[in-house]
Amino acid sequence: MRFRPEPTGGGGEPGRLAVLLVNLGTPDRATPSALRRYLAEFLSDPRVVEIPRAVWLPILHGVVLRVRPAKSAAKYRSIWMAEGSPLAVWTARQADALQQALDSGAQRLLVRHAMRYGRPSISAVLDALRGEGATRILILPLYPQYAAATTGSVADAVHRWALGARRVPGLRLVDDYHDDAGYIDALAGSVRRHWQRVEPGERLVLSFHGLPERSRALGDPYHEQCRRSAALLRERLSLPPERVLVTFQSRFGKAKWIEPYTEPTVRALAAQGVRRIDLMCPGFAADCLETLEEIDQEVRSAFLAAGGGEFRYIPCLNADAAWIEALRALAERQLQGWGSARAAVETTAATMPGKAGS
Fold this sequence. Notes:
By secondary structure, the protein is an alpha/beta fold. It contains eleven helices and eight strands.
């Protein structure tokens, strides 16, 4: 059967609105076998590794998936929470908090979350939403800055699911919100609260996930959007330019990635006599391996080993109230014309995509 059958019943019921938060993904357990499954899915995505399949897949299955799972599992074990993977825990909490923030009782609104890789998968959650009567679904990736490897890949997965649907629901995609006022305010509030507890560092380092330099040359706006987010945050905090540094982390492979790299930057700061730094990761909506292990363990150790005095990591926004409010406002703007989360409005036939500020 080419197209999936529609859920039974509810044909005469008013369609329901839904918001689907999407994060990158995580293994189910901190074990080599679980990491092998997760990495195989993640690193097989041509959006993530833009190397010809005939070249990359033998390397992936013949080398990477034989060596990396055990090493990655050990890293995950160092940050694993009692409830599971931090990324999974925080993303679920964000969805629950957003549901409460949007639930005024006036609309039959659903909020769910999915992972681009791993579980719950985008296709499984979209199937479940259709079963619950959702006919208009807002896809809200938890990536403030657009990258083809992240938001673009989410769009791929949504469209693949839609290709097999008999009744394709109305779909909207939030492509980015790097300059959204609520997002910037939430980041600034997090920094201010941190500085109420400790003396501000000599430098505030803003570390974003890296991408190959080639992606910028091909037109990916990610680098510029990261820079714009950082500039807006610096302005909101009233800091001079020399106090704030933008860096990029998580380099993989031998190709040149967007610079400056985070770890060499903090080593250089220590060598220059900077004793105290604060570091946050504005591009990550929830704490995960890249923030808790790579930054708060590896980069911390690098700074201290190079002669630095104090390294203070500022956690991701996670389920911060201001962040949830920013997501609520963003979702409501995107739902306008479809049906508001707080008041019934005229439904339109609009589908993909939608700009955060539009």
